[in-house]
């Protein structure tokens, strides 16, 4: 897919509105339009990469920055100590629907059942 057709590239460019929660030189984060938890944030690299499957060795630092951004947002939101879930759906069987690599940060409720 060319970046011109990519939904998340358009969100990063401000061509489609989003609820921004964080940005830095490499990453942009915004609220998921269909949240699966009280906090459901998507963290995306500004660089278009189709999926984790397409990430290369040169993207290693960028992948780390996405993870660190997720952890920082979790601390800012106040649920880091309670815990949270980070997910990278990849390709068809992984449930990926938007082919611009992204990290889901889900928090504000337990994901372990039974809780505790
Ligand atoms: P995936 O299924 O590819 O791992 O995740 C894509 C996510 O993007 C889904 O959770 C979906 O709700 C979210 N999403 C799809 N379209 C939009 C949109 O236009 N705006 C926002 N904020 N999220 C979107
Ligand atoms: Zn893109």
Describe the structure.
The protein is globular and about 45 Å long. The termini are far apart. It contains three helices and five strands. It is α+β, with helices and mostly antiparallel strands. The chain has a five-stranded antiparallel β-sheet with strand order 1-2-3-5-4, covered by helices on one side. Bound molecules: guanosine-5'-monophosphate (5GP) and zinc ion. Residues 7, 18, 30-34, 42, 89, 95-98 line the site of guanosine-5'-monophosphate.
Give the count of structural domains.
1
The top level CATH class name:
Alpha Beta
What is the CA-atom radius of gyration, in angstroms? 14 Å
Mean pLDDT: 96
How would a textbook summarize the main sheet?
5 strands, antiparallel
- Hetero compounds: guanosine-5'-monophosphate, zinc ion
| Strand order of the biggest β-sheet | 1-2-3-5-4
Distance from N terminus to C terminus (CA atoms, Å) equals 43 Å
Q: β content, as a range? A: 15-25%
CATH architecture: 2-Layer Sandwich
CATH topology: HIT family, subunit A
Quick tags:
5 strands, 22% strand, 116 residues, binds guanosine-5'-monophosphate, binds zinc ion, alpha+beta, HIT family, subunit A
Task: Summarize this entry quickly.
The protein has 116 residues and is α+β, with helices and mostly antiparallel strands. Helices cover 24% and strands 22% of the residues.
Draw up the topology in text.
Elements: H1 7-12, E1 20-23, E2 27-31, E3 39-45, H2 60-77, E4 84-87, H3 91-94, E5 103-107
Antiparallel strand pairs: 1-2, 2-3, 3-5, 4-5
This protein binds guanosine-5'-monophosphate (5GP) and zinc ion.
